[in-house]
Structures are given as C-alpha cells and as structure tokens.
Design brief:
Keywords: Membrane, Transmembrane, Transmembrane helix. The protein has about 240 residues and is an all-alpha fold. The chain has one domain. Helices cover about 80% and strands about 0% of the residues. Helix 2 runs antiparallel to helix 3. It is elongated, with a radius of gyration of 29 Å. The protein starts with 9 loop residues before the first helix and ends with a helix.
C-alpha cells in the first residue's frame, strides 16, 4: 500500500508508536513511561477507528438530515401556500388584521429556517463532540508524559551537586537518562501527530483550533526535554 503524500495517514503513525513502545519496553519495562506508551498506542488506535466509523455513520446521518430538511421545507411551503390562498379568498377586512397575518407567516419562516439550520449542522456537531473527547484525552496524556520527565534533572548528575533531604532520587545513569528523555520527547511528538489525525477528517474550526493548541503544547514540552538533554551533554563533557 502506498503512502499518501498529501495527508497524514493513521497506519504510519500507529506503526511508529508500536516501534517506540517496543524500544521503551526493551530499556524500561518496569517504569511508568512504558505503561503510558501503551495508553498512547490504544488511544491512537481509537482515533484511527473513530475516523473510519465516523465517516460511515456521518454519511448516513447527513443523508437523513438532508431528507428531513426537504420535508420541513416542503411542509413550510405548503402551509404558507394554504395561508396565502386562504387570505386571498377569505382575507381580513382591516389592515391591522393583515399585519397580524403577515407577522404569523414571518414567524413560521423563521422557525422553519432555525429547524433547517439545526438539521444541517447535526452531522458536524456529532463529529465535533466525539473528536473533542478524544483530543481531551490526548491533552491529558501529554501532561502525564511531561510529569514523567519533570523530576529527571540532569543537574543532579554533576559531581558538585549536593542533594537535600527531600531531593528526588536519581536512579538512572547518564546514558539511561538520555534515552529516557529522548523517549519522552518522541512520545510528545506522537501525541501531536495523533491529534493531527483528528484534523484530517474534520474542517470544524473548533476541532482545528484544539488540535493546534495540543500541537503547540507538545512542542513546548518537547523543547523543555531537549533543554535537559543539552544540559546532560554538558554534564558529560565536564565529567570527561
């Protein structure tokens, strides 16, 4: 199967996630980061499945909503036609009564327009609700990944570092810490890619804005991780 060059496909993202999870498991099978990678794989699979399911279900919902729109429009036109005919044949004798009749007709048109607009936007609102729920889980997972790297401070590997009684224990070597931080950065990047999969099936402004927010969030978190990797390399050079 060829890879599309004009859109982000789910299969390469899932394959990359599975490979990253295997790499994390090979080095840190007992750490929470491995469990988090499994949660991200499961969530990415749900995003991919949701895209296919939504496409099929929303196609049906869209057809039904369009049929109902036609029925509502037809009933409104028929009702207005009967009202105009009745008014022409047995119309009110005074101008005030004509004004009341016109006002009633305008109200009917407004209500019909509101109903048509509601039916027209039903498919997109259904997709938005489900997609935003998935994006909320992705945002939460990004913060969980960030928590895993939060206390992994390479400064504590310096020979001159003096810990306090409440300093977190550093149970990683400099090489292990580099791999750990690198995995955190890759996981954050793939959270952003998984969020971008949601945008491939939607043109909803709210969804696109939420995806952009998550991508900005993960980029900022990843930047902090790479700052730590830079410090770690400096610690290594000073120790050598």
């Amino acid at each position: 199967m060829g890879i599309a060059l004009d859109r982000l496909e789910a299969d390469p993202v899932l394959a990359t996630l599975a490979q990253l999870r295997a790499r994390i498991g090979a080095r840190f099978p007992e750490r929470g980061l491995y469990s988090v990678s499994g949660e991200l794989v499961e969530l990415a699979e749900r995003v991919a499945q949701s895209s296919v399911q939504n496409r099929n279900r929303l196609h049906v919902v869209r057809i039904v909503s369009r049929v109902v729109i036609v029925v509502v429009a037809a009933l409104t036109l028929v009702a207005l036609g009967f009202a105009v005919r009745s008014a022409a044949m047995e119309g009110p004798e005074h101008d005030v009564e004509w004004l009341s009749l016109v006002e009633s007709g305008v109200n009917d048109l407004v209500f019909a327009a509101v109903a048509i607009w509601f039916l027209y936007t039903v498919p997109e609102r259904l997709r938005r609700s489900e997609t935003l729920a998935l994006l909320h889980e992705l945002r939460s997972l990004a913060h969980i990944i960030d928590m895993h790297q939060l206390n992994k401070d390479p400064e504590r590997l310096r020979a001159s570092f003096t810990p306090t009684a409440v300093s977190p224990a550093m149970d990683l070597t400099s090489e292990e810490l580099e791999h750990y931080l690198d995995y955190c950065s890759e996981l954050l990047s793939l959270v952003g890619k998984t969020a971008a999969l949601c945008a491939e099936e939607s043109r909803d402004a709210v969804v696109l804005d939420t995806v952009s927010t998550i991508e900005t969030l993960t980029i900022g978190m990843s930047r902090k991780v790479w700052q730590k990797i830079t410090v770690l390399n400096e610690v290594r050079r000073s120790a050598g």
